[in-house]
Structures are given as structure tokens and as C-alpha cells.
Amino acid sequence: MRFSTAFAAVSLLLAGPALAQAQDIYVRHGLAMHGNLKYGPNFTAFDYVNPDAPKGGEVRQSAIGSFDTLNPFILKGQPASGIGRIFETLMTGSEDEAFSQYGLIAETVEMPEDRSWVAFTLRPEARWHDGTPITVEDVIFSLEILKTKGHPFYRAYYADVIKAEKIADRKVKFTFSDGLNRELPLIVGELTILSKAYYESIDFEKTTLVSPLGSGPYRVESVDPGRSITYTRVKDYWGADIAVRRGQQNFDTISVDYYRDPTVAMEAFKAHEYDFRAENASKVWATAYVGPAFDDGRIVKEEIANGRPTGMQGFVFNTRRAKFSDPRLRRALGYAFDFEWTNKNLFNGAYTRTESYFSNSELASSGLPDAAELALLESFRYQIPATVFTEAYETPKTDGSGNTRRNLRQALKLLMQTGWNIEDGKLVNPADGRPLEIEFLIVSPLFQRIIAPFIKNLEKLGVAAKIRLVDSAQYQKRLDEFDFDMIVASIGQSLSPGNEQNNFWTSAAADTPGSRNYAGIKDPVVDSLVDTLIAAADRASLVTAARALDRVLLSGYYVVPHWHIRTYRVAYWNKLARPAVTPKYGLGFSSWWVDPDLADALAGREAAAGD
User: Fold this and answer.
1) pTM score of the predicted model
2) Edge-to-edge, what's the strand order for the sheet holding 567-573?
3) Domain boundary at 200, 228, 246, which?
């Protein structure tokens, strides 16, 4: 499911609109939030796919941790990797536009200019894997079950969709609540469609290792609970020749093997236990991707540039904990993280420090607020720090030598302002006399080497800190229940942020189990700015709202920012091929394929090498 949503466009101009019954209602093949759709009504395939890519072969992938359910729609359980590929949505997005959607289960879409409702006409050929048609009743059921019994995310995401009704045999209409959320037609387009008939005898709210009935290009072939899952391509998949699917979903079989330890997973890759790997650890990328298979070209190692916003990754404070309630303390602790030394010694200089929640995009704030931002922020002048208006946000800097004395002095100065005192070498809260203790909850051991130097600097400030490494199931449970001091979290962003921002930052989300408001932010200014962003009438207004929101979030020091990179780092065994064009905003792996000639050559080279 794609959550990179967009609002904020005043016009919804589309290639080739056909006038419907009223002058202000148009029937379309897709929706674009900003400007025109790139692809017209008669397009045959996306530009970044090979329409003639061969079907067949197997690709093996990996995952870390475990899984215990094939139901990805509820809060309970850890879903299996890739389970979403058995389902389909009303519409699907392209990976070379900021936010556009084209009909998938829906053949056409229509709505009025005020966007107060949207209607979809379903394709007559759309089918479940058991051969029965996808119906309007299935669509209505999907919205209702997700809002009432699904993961809390869905209840918030579709909160403003107040009604779904059947208006023709293949047409369903969604009506929206009053307001200015112009993204709602596209939000509904993202709706995953579930079988009403199937769930008449299945408890939707329970975890399960029995594959649900789907309608997507793959079905579950086999499951080894917690260890592996295999998907097979549906040979008579109803959508195979639709433009938005042509040249994609080319593998006959996709298998995912689970590993408890990333180091073991890396060695398994080099032993060709699986075929494709995306790397997010710079040290591993620099040092582990070596050996005979790399030297002789059996494994291809590539960095593929992309234009995606990088969002925010960082050490996140759980402000639900009273000890983290003061932003001055959170800011002070940020001075103990030496990014420059970390980047130089642990990352081989691969990264850029992140200084925005919308980094690598025009939505990121920088310098002082411009006139439009000031006009928006002025009404909050006495509710937000004065520095929002007078100082450009900047993360603490060092010379990379490991000498953090200057930064730690600044940290102590801020701590003294908060009333915290150092007694017997411990940082003590004057309110209750308790020393400050921090537990970093992590699921990946890769972060131990990054957090350890941070902890040493925190200890110089009198902070007692430790690392708690847990398995994926325990981690997810504690995350859902906000049972942590600090975590490493990443909040991705799109070029068109929108309704999902409610789940990231708002007061309502702070009290919703399973939300992504990990920091527990409860700020009426943030709530208001999120509303403003959602209601933005055009691109300029969206950019202004995003930058203003960014500034207020940064001023709260909810996160010690990490770093980002503008490339995908991938390695794969040389049997895979990909289109000549890579989409700007995605890797496009769904359009890769197994090249039979490469696969035969690889098999011969592996036999000769004795593998």
C-alpha cells in the first residue's frame, strides 16, 4: 500500500477528460493532485518498465526477524514480508510522478470540482483468486471493516470518508465530510479491496497463517511459520494486460527467507542463498560486499540515484515520559551526538546530516522564514519558540576529531537552565531527585556501534544510558504501545505530504496505539499546521505549510537527527535484469525480471567455481 499521499492542488487537470452528466463532473482514467497526469487515457505502459519483459524464473529475497501472521490489516502480529502483493487497490500510483493515480480495480473515476465525493466504476474483468468477480459490495465492506476493526492507522486515514454507497452495478460512490481535505479522492483510490464473502466465515481481527483470499498478481504458495514464505505468480491474473501492470510482476516465484542476524544474512547472500539485497548500512556496503563472486561479476553491486525526499530518521525521544518533557533537555542531549566523527569513522563519509523533516525536497525549511511562512506562523507567535522567527535551525557540529568538549559545555549550559543538576557525577532531576536514565530500544544490532559512542558522551553529562536489543516481535509490541525511552525511527515523506501527517504528529495520534507519532507530540500548533497543510489549495500553499510545520517540529527537539543518502545501494546475483529507465521516485523492482540467458550463464559460472 502506498502512503505517500498528496493534497494541496487547486486544479486537478487530467489528460483527456470526458465530460459527464454535469459540466463540473468529469470521468477520468486517473487523478493527479498537481497539474496534469503524465500518462494519457490510452497509455499502454509506464515509461520505466519493459513491456516485453519475459515472465518466469524465481527471485529469492531476505528479511530480518520473524513473522506470525498473513493478516497485515490489524494491530496484532508481525505480518509476513511481501504479503501486500496478494491484494489490489482501486487505483495505483506511478513511480515517476509526485503523486498521481491510475485505475486498477477501478476502470474510471469521477468527481466534482469541489471534491466533495468521488465515484469509481469497477472493471468487469476484476476477479478474486477463486474466480469470483470483485463487486461494489466488496469495496464498501473494505472501507467499513478497516475503519471499524482494522489497524488504528486506517481509522484515522479514512476518518473523513463518511459514506460509501452503491449507485450502479459496478459503480461505488464515496462521500466526504465537510472540510478542505482535497486529497480524499486519492486517499480512497489507495483503498485495499477485501473479499466480503471470504470474511463472512473468517474472523478479520485475528492473526492467521492461512492466506486470505486475494486478487493481486501473486498468491501465497507456502509458509514455514517465522522462517520463510513463498509467493507464486497467478497465471490467469485478471490485470496482467492493464497498462498499470504491463511489464511488471515478472517473476514466477518470489520467496522470502528470514534471518535472525544481519551478519548471517549477509553471508547467506554471498553464498547465493538469495538473489537480491538492498543495503542501508554504509560500513557493510564499504567492507562486506567483496569476494570472488563480486570480482568475477557473478554479483552486481550498484548505486542507483533517486529523487525521493529522504524524510527524517533519528533518535526519537518518547515525550510521554516525564523526564523528556522539557525541550531544552532534549536539545541539550542532542549535543552529545557527534555526527561528524560518526560519519567519518563508521560510515566512510557516506552520509549528509539531516536538518529537516522533509529533507531533499522543496518542502524542507531553511534559513529564516520567508514572507509566506511568516504570514502563516504569525498567528502562533506566542505559542511557539521565538527562535522559529529569528534563528535558522542547525544541528550541532564538531570537527570530526572526536573532541566534543565544546558541544558538551553547551549541553551543560542548557541543562543548568532546565534546573537539572549534576550530583556525584549523575544528572539529577530537581523535581524528584532521580538521576536521568535512558534506554535505547533497538531491533537491529547494526545500531549498537552507532549508539555506543553517543552513550559515552551522554555519560560525560551524567546520563546513565544503555542499549536494549530485542527481537522483532517484542520490538513491534513495545513500539505499538509506546513502551520505550528512545528508539531509532524513520519517517519517510513524499513530494506531496498530506493525510498521513495526522498519524505522524498530531495530538490524537499520540494517544492511538500503533500510530507513528512515536515522540508523543501533543501541540495544538502542530495540529493546526497539519490541518492547514491538508487544506492547502495549491502547490505554493502546500510548500509554505510544510515548511512552517517543519520549523515548529524542529523547534520541539523531538528527535536527534541522523543522516541521509540520495541513492539506492543494491546488490544482486547476475541473473536479474532491469529496464533501461529507473523511475525518479522509486527503485521499480516490480518491473525487474529473470533474464534466461544470464541465469544459464550464472549457473555455469557457479558450477565452474564450485559453488
Assistant:
1) 0.81
2) 276-278, 567-573, 299-305
3) 200
Torsion angle in degrees (nearest 10) through CA of 256, 440, 326, 492? -20
Domain total of the chain: 3
Do residue 287 and residue 323 come from a single domain? no
Distance CA 414, CA 411 (A): 5
CATH of the domain at 584: 3.40.190.10
- Host domain of residue 99: 18-43+78-200
| pLDDT tens readout for residues 174-200 | 999 987 788 899 999 999 999 999 999
Please give the pLDDT value at position 535. Answer: 87
| SS3 of residue 417 by DSSP | helix
Confidence of residue 19 (pLDDT cuts 50, 70, 90): very low
Do 349 and 483 sit in the same domain of this protein? yes
H, E, C per residue of 322-358 = HHHCCHHHHHHHHCCCCHHHHHHHHCCCCCEECCCCC
HSE-CB at 293 with a 13 A cutoff on CA atoms is 24
Give 580-602 pLDDT, tens digit per residue.
999 999 999 999 999 999 999 99
The answer to the question of residue 9 being in a domain is: no
> Could you tell me if 271 and 234 lie in one domain?
yes
CA distance 36 to 11: 9
The candidate with the shortest Cα–Cα distance to 357, out of 168, 562, 199, 610, is 562
55 lies in a domain?
no
Other beta carbons within 10 angstroms of residue 306's beta carbon come to 19
Distances (CA, A) of 226 to 36, 63, 64, 146, 451: 45, 10, 10, 25, 28
CATH number at residue 370: 3.10.105.10
CB of 168 closer than 8 Å to CB of 162: no
